[in-house]
Amino acid sequence: MFQPLLRIALALSAASALAACTVPAQETSLASPVPPPTDDQDAALSARGEYLVRIAGCNDCHTPAYGERGGSVPKEEWLTGSPMGFHGPWGTTYAANLRLKAAEIEEAGWLEYTANLHTRPLMPDYSVRDMTAEDRLALYRFLRELGPAGTKAPEFLPPGKTPAPPYLQLVLPPPAG
Ligand code: HEC
Asked: Using a 6 Å cutoff on CB, does residue 71 contact ligand 1?
């Protein structure tokens, strides 16, 4: 009598111990099939994003008065877009608020979007397209770390419309031929 009962009791407690172990493990594996990156890896990626922004000149256009202030602009103001118009034969464009852009798009969407980025002048869209996926991800992580701020840049004006100041006017040579 005693032995079978003990065996059942042992089996039951082993089963519940097993259940206690496996349930959280299952939940973790469902939520994230690959191990999540460590905080160090996240911090390194975002730091690379900041470095790229600094050296690739994104602030020159996307951060108000970055050049005028010799690059000493607090990060809270970075990449919030600019009211300075670029006026030329293509119309008038304004460097977009990249912090709002990154806030409204998921990581996979950003990678797809930036791999195929085509904009009007003066945005050097080829510089972004030519970045590695990892660098484009680093930009995204940095933008998300900065978080959304500021307002949208002014709307694009079609060719032939004179913008309100401030704007830079580009007078280009006539088309060749
Ligand atoms: C010479 C000025 C200039 C520089 C430098 C520049 N941009 Fe831009 N960027 C612009 C302008 C102007 C637009 C808006 C183009 C348009 O209206 O089609 C723009 C648009 C964009 C857009 C599209 C945003 C949207 O909402 O449509 C992205 C993304 C972008 N820039 C990222 C970058 C990154 C990243 C860098 C640095 C590698 C950078 N830009 C450097 C001027 C610049």
From this structure: no
Cα–Cα distance for residue pair 28/146, rounded to 1 Å = 29
Ligand 1 centroid from CA 44, angstroms: 24
The DSSP H or E segment spanning 53 is: helix 39-55
**Residue 71 dihedral angles phi and psi, to the nearest 5°:** 80, 0
Mean of pLDDT values over 58-62:
98
For the chain, give the number of residues: 177
The predicted structure's pLDDT at residue 30? 55
For ligand 1, say whether the CB of 139 is within 6 Å of any of its atoms.
yes
The encoded tokens of residue 95 equal 């460097």
Sign of CA dihedral 36, 56, 148, 112: negative
How many angstroms separate the alpha carbon of residue 157 from the centre of ligand 1?
16
> What's the mean pLDDT in 48-56?
98
Amino acid at 153: A
